[in-house]
Amino acid sequence: MLTLLLTLLTPGCSQADKVADDSAPVEGDADSDADGDSDSDADGDSDSDSDSDADPPEAKLVLNELLAGNKSGATDEAGQQEDWIELVNIGDAAADLTGWSLTDSFGEKDPWPLPELQALNPGERLLIWADEDLDDGALHTDFKLSGDGETLSLLDAEGEIADEVTFPALNDDEAYARLPDGEGPWDLSDTPTPGATNE
After folding, report:
1. Which residues are CB-contacts of 37 (< 8 A; sequence separation ≥ 6)?
2. Chain centroid, CA 46 distance in Å
3. Residue 199 belongs to some domain of the structure
4. Coil, helix or strand for 13?
5. What is the C-alpha separation between 199 and 180, in angstroms, rounded?
6. pLDDT tens for the 199 residues of the chain, in order
């Protein structure tokens, strides 16, 4: 009885100390060490994984703006006001255009191949003239955009749809653009911005 009373009065004793034999290891200490080791190891692994699993830079080429009835806007190399399509790379690595293409008739005819130009850097735009004037240069497609609305598809090097938009009937000089620029939803715009940030 005296031994038990002294044990209960001794400062710093855990509940495990009160019921365990004096010769037995203290469970609280063992648990504490195990937990400490486990937490330490887990933290170390977590830090290591987060560093090694960081996503590498990637390109992301998307349709950004189009205009199907150019009457008073931008002109091409020949000084003509033609339909146009703007692409932008919103990724964080350069976009290789090799093998990519555009079409307004997916699955019905061969798509128009994008020219093999220098890679499009992050944030850079590419303005393409949709005018059927192939002789005017590498950035002129073999199709025009319909002012009555249609579906425009951007295909990757494997021929898969990387981006696509179905636009409505557009008035002359009315653009259809992503707002905010590059990533937002599509909307009508009375302020076409070929080669610049959408408004």
Report:
1. none
2. 25
3. no
4. coil
5. 8
6. 333 333 333 444 444 444 344 444 444 444 444 444 444 444 444 444 444 568 899 999 999 999 999 999 999 999 999 999 999 999 999 999 999 999 999 989 999 999 988 899 999 999 999 999 999 999 999 999 999 999 999 999 999 999 999 999 999 999 999 999 899 999 999 999 999 999 8
What number of residues does the chain have? 199
Instruction: Identify the residue whose tokens are 């019921």.
Output: 19
Query: Number of folded domains in the chain?
Result: 2
**Are 125 and 77 spatial neighbours (Cβ–Cβ below 8 Å)?**
no
Are 65 and 53 spatial neighbours (Cβ–Cβ below 8 Å)?
no
Instruction: Name the DSSP class of 40.
Output: H
**C-alpha–C-alpha distance, residues 130 and 140, integer Å:** 6
Helices (H), the chain: 2-9, 15-19, 27-52
Cα separation, 67 vs 182, in Å, equals 16
Same domain for 87 and 27, yes or no, is: no
Q: Is 198 domain-assigned?
A: no
CA 15 to chain centre: 56
Q: State the number of CA atoms in the 13 A half-sphere of 31 facing the CB.
A: 5
In angstroms, rounded to a whole number, what is the distance separating the alpha carbons of residues 90 and 80? 29
